[in-house]
């Protein structure tokens, strides 16, 4: 099989694509994978680090309002389609798998031009605008959540789950804490806001880190993110025992494995990883997510009792501290929330999506 994977923009699009690539190459090392990404996203560094080839094209995000950037983005569409056509013509793929990002539109259009199956994957509960448009030309649409089915009136849609990397399924808590130089006996809170970080979460956690860590049975692993790390650490008290602020973590699965509680946004891939590892969470949905998808993603976990939710505009040191204290001091509650999270896990998502891709090719 020769497969093009179009993935980019954020880790939420990139990592599911990588999970599929790894599943395919593990099944048969003769399977050929080529990624297509944007020239302005994080995908080139991440994907090449994992040992896969990627071609970048000149694609930009189109938003639903008039801006100067939108004009340039629209003009870039034919350029990105032409660049994708050159890639497809050279690689000659059997199918294209689209996880999202700026490259979704040109890659899917090229798949249609080459008359090969176009398989879409929607990570979030409500589909984004691009996925809605591409439904018209897609062979199949793989969904992460049962709740997404109501948005599609077609037998093209199938719930497969959101693929997570294999490392999330096979990492030991004690070993992860040792590898990260954490105390193996302390309750561990993992805080992060995505690959670039989340300023509101960072500032709030920094204000309560000393209060949380004065309980010498608790430690915080705080991933601040590339964007804010430099400026943030200039004013940050880094001498708090049990508080570990870092810029970025490529081996994020170790951070998850080490954690008893995760404090984070509500991106679909993050939630799939939380479910796969059965971790209680405090979710602070990004308030400007398209279609309000992070709120809807978080609601699935809240409704089943796997997570607590704090609205971004309600986030304060007192509220976050109160919830953290409540969870830290109740092993029964943590165990129950972890069990609920596990109920939402679809650990065979990669295999199911590979089956869908294979069936569309044959």
What would your notes on this structure say?
This protein has 362 residues and is α/β, with parallel strands linked by helices. It folds into two domains: 178 residues, Glycogen Phosphorylase B (Rossmann fold, 3-Layer(aba) Sandwich), CATH 3.40.50; 177 residues, Rossmann fold, CATH 3.40.50. 44% of the residues lie in helices and 17% in strands. It is built from 14 helices and 13 strands. Strands 3-2-1-4-5-6-7 form a seven-stranded parallel beta sheet, sandwiched between helices. It has a six-stranded parallel beta sheet with strand order 10-9-8-11-12-13, with helices on both faces. Strand 8, helix 7 and strand 9 form a beta-alpha-beta unit. Helix 1 packs across helix 14 and helix 6 crosses helix 9. The relative contact order is 0.12. The mean pLDDT is 91.
Key words describing this protein structure:
Rossmann fold; six-stranded parallel β-sheet; 17% strand; 362 residues; seven-stranded parallel β-sheet; alpha/beta; 14 helices
Topology diagram in text:
Layout: E1 2-7, H1 11-27, E2 32-38, H2 43-49, E3 53-57, H3 68-91, E4 95-100, H4 104-113, E5 118-122, H5 129-134, E6 140-143, E7 157-159, H6 173-179, E8 187-192, H7 199-213, E9 218-223, H8 226-234, E10 243-246, H9 252-258, E11 261-264, H10 268-276, E12 281-283, H11 293-304, E13 307-309, H12 317-328, H13 331-343, H14 349-361
Parallel strand pairs: 1-2, 1-4, 2-3, 4-5, 5-6, 6-7, 8-9, 8-11, 9-10, 11-12, 12-13
Helix pairs in contact: 1-14, 3-4, 6-9, 7-12
């Amino acid at each position: 099989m020769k497969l093009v994977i179009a993935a980019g923009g954020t880790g939420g699009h990139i990592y599911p694509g990588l999970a599929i690539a790894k599943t395919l190459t593990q099944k048969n090392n003769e399977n050929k994978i080529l990624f297509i990404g944007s020239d302005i996203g994080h995908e080139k560094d991440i994907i090449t680090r994992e040992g896969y080839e990627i071609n970048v094209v000149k694609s930009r995000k189109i938003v639903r309002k008039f801006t100067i950037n939108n004009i340039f983005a629209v003009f870039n569409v034919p350029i990105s389609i032409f660049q994708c056509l050159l890639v497809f013509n050279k690689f000659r793929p059997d199918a294209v798998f689209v996880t999202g990002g700026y490259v979704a539109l040109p890659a899917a259009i090229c798949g249609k031009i080459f008359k090969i199956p176009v398989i879409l994957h929607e990570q979030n509960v409500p589909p984004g605008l691009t996925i809605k448009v591409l439904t018209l030309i897609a062979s199949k649409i793989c969904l992460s959540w049962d709740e997404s089915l109501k948005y599609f009136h077609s037998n093209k849609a199938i719930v497969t789950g959101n693929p997570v990397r294999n490392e999330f399924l096979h990492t030991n808590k004690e070993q992860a804490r040792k590898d990260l130089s954490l105390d193996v006996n302390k309750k561990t809170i993992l805080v992060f806001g995505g690959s670039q970080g989340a300023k509101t979460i960072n500032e709030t956690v920094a204000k309560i880190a000393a209060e949380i860590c004065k309980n010498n049975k608790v430690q915080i692993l705080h991933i601040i993110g590339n964007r804010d790390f430099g400026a943030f650490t200039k004013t940050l008290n880094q001498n708090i025992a049990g508080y570990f602020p870092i810029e970025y973590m490529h081996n994020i699965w170790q951070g998850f494995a080490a954690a008893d509680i995760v404090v984070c946004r509500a991106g679909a891939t993050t939630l799939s990883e939380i479910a796969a590892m059965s971790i209680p969470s405090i979710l602070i949905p990004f308030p400007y997510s398209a279609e309000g998808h992070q709120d809807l993603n978080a609601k699935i976990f809240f409704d089943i009792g796997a997570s607590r939710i704090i609205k971004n505009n309600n986030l304060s040191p007192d509220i976050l501290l109160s919830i953290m204290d409540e969870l830290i001091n109740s092993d029964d509650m943590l165990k129950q929330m972890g069990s609920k999270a596990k109920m939402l896990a679809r650990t065979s998502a990669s295999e199911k999506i590979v089956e869908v891709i294979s069936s569309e090719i044959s």
